[in-house]
Amino acid sequence: MGNFQRVFGPSKPVIGMVHLAAMPGTPLYDPDAGIAGMIAAARADLGALQDAGFDAVMFGNENDRPYEFAVDTATTATMACVIGHLAREITVPFGVNVLWDPISTIALAAATGAAFAREIFTGTYASDMGPWTPDAGRAMRYRDRLGRQDLALLYNVSAEFADSLDRRPLPDRARSAVFSSIPDAVLVSGAITGEAARMEDLEAVKAALPGTPVLANTGVKHDTVGQVLDSADGCIVGSSLKVDGDTWKPVDPDRAKDFMSRARAARTT
Q1: Of 69, 83, 127, 133, which sits with the fewest C-beta atoms within 10 Å of its C-beta?
Q2: Is the pLDDT of residue 269 over 90?
Q3: pLDDT higher than 80, residue 1
């Protein structure tokens, strides 16, 4: 059994995001709220997602704008601190994503016992942060050196805030990533956080990768989750679950429950 199936089982997983508050040392960090405020906010979002019945949750540092390719050590340490404080309350598989640093993501997963990790592991991009050239070989070898061969790696093959310098069609790039880098799942994204991946892209990548789980990574809405799950093997959702659908607000428990109700209905049809 592969890592993805071991973590998520046979159903199409719906993964809810816990967007942590900005980390110490980043421009949007709130020193008055401090780490205690960060933990309290994450606890509330985690509780809302688990109460709504999400299959898994993922902790990410979306508030650390502008993003970096190599984050400060304090970011990884603080994220580990927050997750550690919540560990006994987590009742579903959880994952991590340190934007946009594959090595820190792997380190955080190893330190916290995460079941899966999301990142841009492959490709070459022109991005808002400058030239983007991740190294999947280094990240996978680091995972194995830390004894986490069981860590499921979710490869985002259409980077947000960026344009691929590789002019091959997206399905060809996805097939190449699977052949050369052995991801546990492939993710298809929209242009930025909260914007939907094009359905034609999602469908084309899935057609090119019938034996690899393919998930929608961004922009899944209440009224599109049925269509997405009809074509994809799962989805990751954040913004749609927030108060007023605003990425930077807390999870709205009612929106989260409504979303999962629709997702469950879609999976049984």
Answers
A1: 133
A2: no
A3: no
